[in-house]
Amino acid sequence: MDPLRVAVVGTGNIARIHADSLRQLGDDVRLIGAVDVDADRLAAFADRYDVPARHSDLTSLLEKDRPDLVHLCTPPGSHHPLALACLTAGSNVLVEKPPTLSLAELDELVEAERKSGASVATVFQHRFGTGALRLRALLDSGVLGRPLVAVCHTTWFRNQAYFDVEWRGRWDTEGGGPTMGHGIHQMDLLCAILGDWTEVSAIARQQARRMETEDVSMAHVSFANGAVASVVNSLVSVREESYLRFDFERATVEVTHLYGYGDDDWRITPTPEHAGEVLAAWRTGPSGVRSAHRAQFAEVVRALRAGTPPPVNSAESRRTMGLVAGVYASAFTRSAVRAADLAADSPFYRKMEGNGPRW
Ligand SMILES: NC(=O)c1ccc[n+]([C@@H]2O[C@H](COP(=O)([O-])OP(=O)(O)OC[C@H]3O[C@@H](n4cnc5c(N)ncnc54)[C@H](O)[C@@H]3O)[C@@H](O)[C@H]2O)c1
């Protein structure tokens, strides 16, 4: 079978992880093109990864090289127009998180996807480590019982200099602070396990950094299955950690990591009466794969070969983006927000900050 022809747009920091991860997939994929508006970065990247087609704009790549799949590794504000261009040209697109700046933009991509036959997917790599896959499998089998309570913490640290990069910490280019840009990873895994959320109550604060957006948000979230979760997103936490905890009727399942987990970062604590059954199921589940871009890319390639929408598909991405919008809507209206409140007439549908933040 011919290799899948992939192009990378935006050749900055995360693009190198994309290129290294694509390389690790071997002959299944070929990096045939790269695009950047910065000629020096483009040349350095293309030389390093031996990329034949080099372009200063996406339109030229789409016309001349017609890639099967485009990885968008540009700053968040450019994701929507670039993804639209890919879908219109019939190329599948895998966009870095956050997929768009707003729910309105994401819905436009869903509409373009419907018309084009090509697919749009978002990079949420923490769904794809075997720890998360094992948890999902155990939950589906019923061995854990009902989910009751969850904790979802992204307590990270970014100093003031981090926000010197011109697109960071601004509503119009990044779409938010740690809720949109960092905690979205953990919130996506939370939603992947617990499903549809129904209501959120949140606060957002500017605790320490000079920037437009929040540097801390805290929320409690209700899910359609009856579970409730506590979410913290912070960029001012000196001892950094990503922590997810799920309390089911028959066991607590936890993962503690920072930017990626392995199997050893997971811990399961069953009730004494269900220990035998729960631990046996946990030990025989999938194992051996860290949460990383490579794990997701392998699934994206598999899905495209099978003619199915690659993960994380637009509907799943939208649910996570809806929760992000819900956190901001609740924080800035100072009231509980239901998922249904974020319809097209809500100011938080068009912009994450709605009609403007209220601190
Ligand atoms: N999944 C993850 O764990 C993870 C981690 C870090 C960053 N990210 C995401 O990756 C994206 C990029 O972040 P980064 O840190 O690599 O940014 P970066 O600033 O290092 O790189 C972005 C590159 O895109 C180029 N660019 C900008 N506009 C362009 C356009 N219209 N066409 C072509 N090239 C353009 C810039 O010149 C630059 O080289 C962001 O969405 C960020 O949130 C994801």
UniProtKB/TrEMBL annotation:
The residue ranges of the GFO/IDH/MocA-like oxidoreductase domain are: 134-249
Q: Where does the Gfo/Idh/MocA-like oxidoreductase N-terminal domain start and stop, copy by copy? A: 4-121
- UniProt xrefs under InterPro entries: Gfo/Idh/MocA-like_OxRdtase_N, Gfo/Idh/MocA_Oxidoreductase, GFO_IDH_MocA-like_dom, NAD(P)-bd_dom_sf
* One Pfam family in the UniProt entry: GFO_IDH_MocA_C3
Query: What's the protein here called?
Result: Gfo/Idh/MocA family oxidoreductase
Lineage of source species: Bacteria, Bacillati, Actinomycetota, Actinomycetes, Micromonosporales
